[in-house]
From TrEMBL:
GO molecular function, one term: peptidase activity
UniProt keyword annotations, A-Z: Hydrolase, Membrane, Protease, Transmembrane, Transmembrane helix
Transmembrane segment boundaries: 12-34, 40-63
Xref: InterPro entries: Band_7 (IPR001107), Band_7/SPFH_dom_sf (IPR036013)
Entry protein name: Regulator of protease activity HflC (Stomatin/prohibitin superfamily)
PANTHER family, A to Z: BAND 7 DOMAIN-CONTAINING PROTEIN, MEMBRANE PROTEIN-RELATED
Keyword Protease on entry: yes
Length: 290
């Protein structure tokens, strides 16, 4: 079912008509019954005004800002009133309220397996609002519960298509390294799932991402090892550059070293620079060739 605009008119005019009908009906009934010869015509006219009052009052509806009223007449959908204010609609209709405010859904921390089969914990925040009041009211039983269930289903589905992190030399998309892309894909899939409920997804963000407890310690050691290897690689690259600069500076100063002394100097400099401990100098009192 698709939302349509209901018929409505200014409610203040209808309220004035209701007051006039109520006061006029009382006056006609009292006037017709207080005379020595009761006037049936005045009494009937007063009753008719009371009927007009009841019909008019039953047609009044108040719509608050960021709210809509669903108008149904004996089970038939007649439309939706979105404009805030006091309005007159079709009499004797049911007027149910639907909020149009922006809402947040914070999912529970879900335990799922990523693309590599590692158990991870993941959660997300979904920002949404009702776009089609007819679908939200009639096509699903409870659109808030529908959003909650479909959001968790979409989170599980997206998490299974990405690894937690990328450890290859050529980075691949991952949950940790590509949070924005994952959130965008989650929003697109969730919007596709929630179209049937007339809900518009405004934004999705991952609110929690971590390894499950049973593998967290092992994965932390793996991350530390990768970080140490990367750091060592940077240190070695820097050390090679520093040794090369030192040799070039010696040659520019006119100090010439043969191959054996050059190799010894390179070895000493590399050990001093790359070592994770302070170097201990050793004084060689003899000759390198002795």
């Amino acid at each position: 079912m698709v939302e349509s605009k209901a018929w409505y008119m200014n409610g203040y005019a209808a309220l004035l008509l209701a007051l006039v009908s109520f006061v006029g009906g009382i006056a006609l009934i009292i006037g017709g019954a207080s005379t020595e010869d009761p006037s049936a015509a005045l009494i009937v006219a007063g009753v008719l005004l009371f009927i007009v009052f009841i019909i008019t009052v039953s047609s009044l509806v108040i719509v608050q800002p960021n709210e809509a009223k669903i108008i149904t007449f004996f089970g038939s959908y007649k439309g939706t009133v979105r404009d805030s204010g006091l309005w007159m609609v079709v009499p004797f209709t049911n007027k149910s309220k639907v909020s149009l405010k922006v809402r947040n859904f914070n999912s529970q921390t879900l335990k799922v397996n990523d693309e590599e089969g590692n158990p991870i914990e993941i959660g997300a925040v979904v920002v949404y609002k009702v776009k089609d009041t007819a679908k939200a009211s009639f096509d699903v039983d409870n659109y808030e519960k529908f959003v909650a269930i479909q959001s968790e289903t979409a989170i599980r589905h997206i998490a299974a298509h990405y690894p937690y992190d990328s450890y290859d030399s050529e980075p691949t998309p991952s949950l940790r390294g590509n949070a924005d892309e994952v959130a965008t894909e989650l929003m697109n899939e969730l919007q596709h799932r929630l179209n049937v409920a007339g809900v518009q997804v405004i934004e999705t963000r991952l609110s929690h991402l971590a390894y499950a407890q049973e593998i967290a310690s092992a994965m932390l050691q793996r991350q530390q090892a990768i970080a140490i290897v990367a750091a060592r690689q940077k240190i070695v690259e820097g050390a090679v550059g520093m040794v090369d600069a030192a040799l070039q500076q010696l040659e520019a100063s006119g100090i010439t070293l043969d191959d054996e002394r050059r190799a010894a100097m390179v070895n000493n400099l590399m050990v001093a620079i790359v070592s994770d401990r302070a170097a201990t100098p050793v004084i060689n009192a003899g000759s390198l060739y002795s």
